[in-house]
From TrEMBL, chain A:
Record carries keyword Oxidoreductase: yes
Family matches, as InterPro entries: Intradiol_dOase_C, Intradiol_dOase_core, Intradiol_RC_Dioxygenase, PCDO_beta_N, Protocat_dOase_b
Gene Ontology MF terms in the entry: ferric iron binding; protocatechuate 3,4-dioxygenase activity
Pfam families in the cross-refs: Dioxygenase_C, PCDO_beta_N
Residue ranges occupied by any Intradiol ring-cleavage dioxygenases domain in the UniProt entry: 77-105
Organism, scientific name: Puniceibacterium sediminis
Region of interest (Disordered), residue spans: 1-44
Protein name: Protocatechuate 3,4-dioxygenase, beta subunit
Alphabetical keyword list: Dioxygenase, Oxidoreductase
Family listed: Belongs to the intradiol ring-cleavage dioxygenase family.
Keyword Oxidoreductase: yes
Residue runs in coiled coils: none
A single GO BP: 3,4-dihydroxybenzoate catabolic process
UniProtKB/TrEMBL annotation, chain B:
Keywords, comma-separated and alphabetical: Dioxygenase, Oxidoreductase
Name of this protein: Protocatechuate 3,4-dioxygenase, alpha subunit
Signal peptide: none
The organism's place on the tree of life at top rank: Bacteria
Species the sequence originates in: Puniceibacterium sediminis
Keyword S-adenosyl-L-methionine annotated: no
Family, as annotated: Belongs to the intradiol ring-cleavage dioxygenase family.
GO molecular function: ferric iron binding; protocatechuate 3,4-dioxygenase activity
Short name of one Pfam family: Dioxygenase_C
InterPro entries, per the entry: Intradiol_dOase_C, Intradiol_dOase_core, Intradiol_RC_Dioxygenase, Protocat_dOase_a
Start and end residues of each Intradiol ring-cleavage dioxygenases domain: 41-191
């Protein structure tokens, strides 16, 4: 049978995670209906890198005034988008968003007292190359408090939206930073059932890719669902 | 000991959070000058065949409150049952993205009514639009399908609709046509009218 490997729902966060309070009224209570993928799930929108502007993958400069740049530790984030079989996922759109170095988002609903950075917007995007690699430049975001219990803080993180080549692969996740003690205190991180799963979202400090006197680097690989490929089609009797 | 399998675990999902619009629809969220326009705003980019339709709806939580911080994406075949990039209408992207109305959360898609697409065994599926919903409080993006209430004969032979255990829940997947030609498809995350979500 072709089609995608089913999602392992014991590996992903469950819908209802009461310690992350907002999930309580936003989680379906019926079990989702499982069925094999067909064309509508096995196709998806494709984006070309000629759609991108020259600064789309440079969050240090893409919102900054001419000659200025965002405040904060300069970092390169790089990695590969692969599938569950280890095959690269080329030419797929990766969108990112994040808080500024002080942990503040540029958003009307944001209430944290940390100041906005006039030179930082907080969004970027990149299309993976023929081998599934992507790279962008930004500043390391700060941790921030959020309304849940009275003293919950998010570890520093970057949000990722990835398309893959099929709607079945569509994924939103978050990247964390090696060594951040807040990772192990966050109710949103803790929605992931296993320590191994959490660690798979922690980017490694990558000194081999740091640019001396300029930027540190972190490596973050993303794994999307894999599509089975076999010569041995599973057909009902008589067909 | 046995040989090691060359397989990887999918990256675990994390909620899109309250600021998903910064990343996915920055112009909508007031961050202008970075991208010329928000992706997915326009599905019809040229000449298209078929019936032009508008889809509107609202996502409600289990307390009946409309979500105003969700991101909704749709993916569908064109009127000739073909997908973009696979022989579909060149004037049609098949993919839309909506942040919803700033005040009400209502999403809108200007699109065409899709044709029928084959199921793996060759039977035809009823016309439908695939939906994907993410928001703060949703830990893993929710997939569902919007079918059309006015396609009763096709719905009656759809391979998915016909095998639902709780057939009384089928109306949660049906968009109703309104007087002006708009199709309304409200999504309920929880509660008595909870939408059927799919594990695909
Ligand atoms: Fe965040």
């Amino acid at each position: 049978m072709t089609g995608f490997i089913p999602r392992d729902r014991r590996w992903h966060p469950p819908a209802l995670t009461p310690d992350y309070k907002t999930s309580v009224k936003r989680s379906p209570s019926f079990a989702p209906l499982s069925f094999p993928t067909s064309l509508p799930e096995e196709t998806g929108p494709m984006f070309r890198d000629d759609m991108l502007g020259p600064n789309d993958s440079d969050l240090i400069h893409n919102f900054a005034k001419a000659g200025e740049s965002a405040v904060g530790p300069r970092i390169i984030v790089h990695g590969r988008v692969i599938d569950e079989f280890g095959r690269p996922v080329p030419n797929t759109l990766v969108e990112v968003w994040q808080a500024n170095a002080g942990g503040r988002y540029r958003h009307k609903k944001e209430s944290y007292l940390a100041p906005l950075d006039p030179n930082f917007g907080g969004c970027g995007r990149v299309v993976t190359d023929d081998h599934g690699y992507y790279e962008f430049r930004t500043i390391q975001p700060g941790p921030y408090p959020w309304p849940n219990t009275m003293n919950d803080w998010r570890p520093a993180h970057i949000h990722f939206s990835v398309f893959g080549h099929s709607f079945a692969q569509r994924l939103i996740t978050q990247m964390y930073f090696e060594g951040d003690p807040l990772i192990w205190k966050c109710p949103i991180v803790d929605t992931i059932p296993t320590r191994e799963g959490i660690e798979s979202l922690v980017a490694a400090l990558d000194m081999s890719r740091a640019i001396p006197m300029d930027s540190l680097a972190y490596k973050f690989d993303i794994v999307l669902r894999g599509r089975r490929q076999t010569h041995f089609e599973n057909r009902p009797e008589g067909l | 000991m046995v040989q090691k399998l060359e397989s990887y675990r999918e990256s675990p999902s994390q909620t899109a959070g309250p600021y998903v619009h910064i990343g996915c629809t920055p112009n909508f969220s007031g961050i202008t000058g970075v991208y010329p326009e928000d992706l997915g705003t326009t599905m019809i980019t040229g000449d298209v065949s078929g019936q032009r339709i508008t889809i509107k709806g609202t996502v409600y939580d289990g307390a009946g409150t409309a979500l105003r911080d969700a991101l909704i994406e749709v993916w569908q075949a064109d009127a000739n049952s073909k997908f973009a990039g696979k022989g579909g209408d060149t004037g049609f992207t098949g993919w839309g993205r909506s942040a919803g109305d700033m005040a009400t959360g209502e999403f809108t898609f200007e699109t065409v009514k899709p044709g029928r697409v084959a199921w793996p065994d060759g039977r035809l599926q009823a016309p439908h639009v695939t939906f994907w919903i993410v928001a703060r409080g949703i830990n893993l993006g929710l997939h569902t399908r919007m079918y059309f209430a006015d396609e009763a004969p096709a719905n009656a032979e759809d391979p998915i609709l016909t095998r639902l255990e709780h057939s009384q829940r089928i109306p949660t997947l049906l968009a109703q046509s309104e007087a002006d030609g708009t199709y309304r498809f409200d999504i309920h995350l929880q509660g008595a009218q909870e939408t059927i979500f799919f594990d695909i």
